[in-house]
Write a structure and sequence with these properties.
32% strand; alpha/beta; seven-stranded mixed beta sheet; binds flavin-adenine dinucleotide; FAD/NAD(P)-binding domain; 21 strands; 5 helices; 2 domains; 285 residues
């Protein structure tokens, strides 16, 4: 029987695990893939406090190593269900069933790809899914953004020399900034490369635009399929938590990109993880 099982091994989970282990709790992390989470999908992290131009995989490795110095067990298994039997809960994976007094769900979300040529190949090489993460890499450059909303377009226009906004909404979105070009009623059909980095994009009207980056903001899917049988409250498929990272189910907490919140970054995931762990410690008392 574990005190806490944490689902996922991204920054939210690893941060929670460190707090729990330091409080002498019997904690288990279950990760379906590689410890480090989404950080491993990006090349550089330049906005995490204490790290300058940190190679992302190095940051992930340091977080993982910190848990290993504390001997926190990490199983590489996929969680496929969670059963809430009151004080004792079961976490069911593709290999086994584990019993625990509490659970922290920290399994993140995945971006919705466009599914067009070169999109996958050029991820991190001029194709980005995160404006707040990568905009600073394109200072004074020409960039394009696919979005349905204004906020990130304005954010980008303060950094890039020109922003080509490909409006994927049905609304007429206007800006009062000279360096934003709005393109309505067109889709990006191809991403063109040169020397393995983005060169341009081609739109459905066959016009080609040279850009240093294409930001794709078509939304995310939270990884909650495996908890469909749990009666957990969600907002837009993100888990709803209170300020202590508590869900509506006693003893079940959530942290990081899986929760409904405003800012989805490594630093906020680590913070959520810490808060969830401290709440679990209180709960276990
Ligand atoms: C391309 C890209 C670039 C980014 N750049 C930055 C940046 O520069 N700066 C920044 O601050 N943020 C950046 N982010 C955002 C940041 O990576 C996330 O906010 C952060 O990683 C969220 O941490 P998390 O622990 O909540 O989730 P994740 O990091 O997504 O980790 C969740 C983990 O749960 C695992 N998991 C999922 N389902 C299951 C299951 N059923 N069973 C077991 N394990 C499961 C996953 O495999 C994953 O390892 C970027 C994101 C992307 C996609």
């Amino acid at each position: 029987m574990f005190d806490t099982i944490i689902v996922g091994a991204g920054p939210a989970a690893l941060s929670a695990a460190i707090y729990l282990k330091n409080a002498n709790k019997n904690v288990l992390i279950i990760e379906k893939d590689t410890p480090g989470g989404k950080i491993l999908k990006t090349e550089k992290i330049n906005n995490y406090l204490g790290f300058t131009e940190e190679d992302a995989s190095n940051l992930a490795y340091k977080m993982y190593s910190q848990t290993q110095k504390l001997n926190i067990p990490i199983l590489i298994e996929k969680v496929i269900d969670i059963k809430n039997n009151g004080e004792i809960k079961q976490v069911i994976t593709n290999k086994n069933t584990y019993e625990t007094k509490s659970i922290i769900i920290a399994c993140g979300r995945v971006e919705k790809p466009l599914g067009i040529e070169n999109e996958d190949k050029l991820k991190g090489k001029g194709v980005s899914y995160c404006v707040k993460c990568d905009a600073s890499l394109y200072k004074d450059k020409v960039v394009a953004i696919i979005s349905k909303e204004k906020d990130d377009v304005i954010y980008l226009s303060d950094i890039a020399s020109k922003v080509i906004f490909i409006n994927y909404s049905n609304e007429d979105i206007k800006f009062n900034k000279d360096n934003i070009e709005v393109i309505n009623n067109e889709k990006v059909i191809k991403i063109n490369e040169e020397n393995n980095i983005i060169k341009s994009i081609t739109l459905s009207n066959n016009k080609e635009y040279d850009v240093s980056c294409l930001f794709i903001e078509t939304g995310y899917t939270p990884n909650i399929d495996f908890i469909k049988s749990l009666d957990i409250k969600t907002i837009n498929n993100y888990i709803q938590v209170d300020s202590e990272m508590k869900t509506n189910i006693d003893g079940i907490y959530a942290a990081g990109d899986i929760i409904y919140k405003n800012v989805y970054q490594v630093i906020t995931a680590a913070s959520d993880g810490a808060i969830s762990a401290l709440s679990v410690i209180k709960y276990l008392k």
